[in-house]
Amino acid sequence: YKRKKPPPDVQNVIDPAESHVRHHFDEIEFHPDKEIQEETELYCQPREKWKIFSSKLNPGFFLILNVFSPEDQYYWIRQCLTKYTSNRYRRNIDAHSNIEDWYSHVLADNNKGDIDKLRWSTLGYHHNWDTKVYDESDKGEFPSDLAKLSSHIVQALGYQRYKAEAAIVNYYPENTTLSGHTDHSEHNLSAPLVSISFGQSGIFLLGGKSLDVSPSAYLLKSGYVAVMTKEARLCYHAVPKILVDPSLVPDMIPEKAEQYDGSKLDQSFTETSTTVDHENFSAKKMKLETENRKDASDNSSAREEDNSETCRFISDYLKNHRINLNIRQVNQI
After folding, report:
1. How is residue 11 annotated by DSSP?
2. What pLDDT is attached to residue 288?
3. Low-confidence ranges of the chain (pLDDT < 70)
4. Is residue 29 within 8 Å of residue 51, measured between CB atoms?
5. Using CA atoms, how far apart are residues 246 and 117, in angstroms rounded to an integer?
6. How far apart are CA 215 and CA 199, in angstroms?
7. pLDDT computed for residue 281 by the predictor
8. CA dihedral in degrees (35, 227, 220, 174; nearest 10)?
9. Which residue from 73, 134, 98, 37 is spatially nearest to 257, judged by alpha carbons?
10. Which residue of 123, 141, 188, 252 is surrounded by the most CB atoms within 10 Å?
11. pLDDT score, position 23
């Protein structure tokens, strides 16, 4: 599948969205949560809309579709590109640069060449690429929103006791790959691995516990969630090819995305004083409301300009990049 000229034949790549390959899967019902949270707080769709497919070719491997609306996808893509790329987390570019905020840095025209230098960011426990070991003394913050989403996903498969503690965000430019490997660094190898894809599609190869097993090829589109559990948890897997189709980008960007910043609207007027001077209250309130409306208008214009710039950047980035969020539990709980 790494072949460039001629391009590889992808007819045998399995996409569960296609009905003619459904015989490779069992469609299963989700497990209800004991204490379910509102999906609006998790930036995903209600579970009733999800489609959960269990692979017959690779037992323990699940593909979940319809987890995210376009608005949800945009939220997570924005997190990956504007939040998880800051030096609050560990990145591959830290070894050879002093860039604090990658996103702000690459917005400048003279820094566009640094866009594809970012290849990964680690959240929570930092993976040591040399020793393949997680160390208690080497960890940072794990985003609470991503932790909640990850738990919500695996609970749908029956894993009620799960704690997301580490994540690797992979940034794939066109023509990049991920070599075959197994994930065995975690202290708890029974907890599932969660992999969320955004942007361009990728071919995902999943084999067995030895390289002698011929792998199956799956298509991971934007918004697909892959979960590796039980016997699939320690199997060899790889991403040999990114399939670039810029025409798919509009499906990942919701309408009026330039107005969206993922936060709730602030109230434009909040009365904080509990002591009221009735004689002057109306005049003071009118003046304050006028000032607040002006400030709100100025802030709104600034937010719209900032959001428009972010939306343009994300749209351009997605035309030839894939983003993968790989989340795991490290310890026993």
Report:
1. T
2. 42
3. 33-40, 132, 181, 183-189, 256, 258-306
4. no
5. 21
6. 24
7. 37
8. 110
9. 73
10. 123
11. 96
Please give the pLDDT value at position 166: 94
- Find residue 14's DSSP bridge partners: 218
For 275, how many CA atoms within 13 A lie in the half-sphere containing its CB?
Answer: 0
Burial of 274 (C-beta count, 10 Å sphere; 0-12/13-18/19+): exposed
Q: What is the DSSP letter of 222?
A: T
Encode burial over 25-38: b for 16+ CB neighbours within 10 A, e otherwise: beeeebeeeeeeee
Using CB atoms within 10 A of its CB, is residue 46 exposed (0-12), middle (13-18) or buried (19+)?
Answer: exposed
Q: Is 65 helix (H, G, I), strand (E, B) or coil?
A: strand
For residue 228, list its beta bridge partners: 61, 193
Strands 216-220 and 201-206: antiparallel
Q: What is the DSSP letter of 58?
A: S
> Residue 160's CB: how many other CB atoms inside 10 A?
12
3-state secondary structure of 324: strand
CA gap 247, 237 in Å, rounded: 28
Cis omega before residue 8 (within 30°)?
Answer: no
Model pLDDT for residues 194-206, shown as the tens digit of each residue: 999 999 999 999 9
Q: Is the dihedral of CA 89, 93, 95, 96 positive or negative?
A: negative
Give the C-alpha separation, 74 to 57, whole Å.
32
CA distance 166 to 328: 5
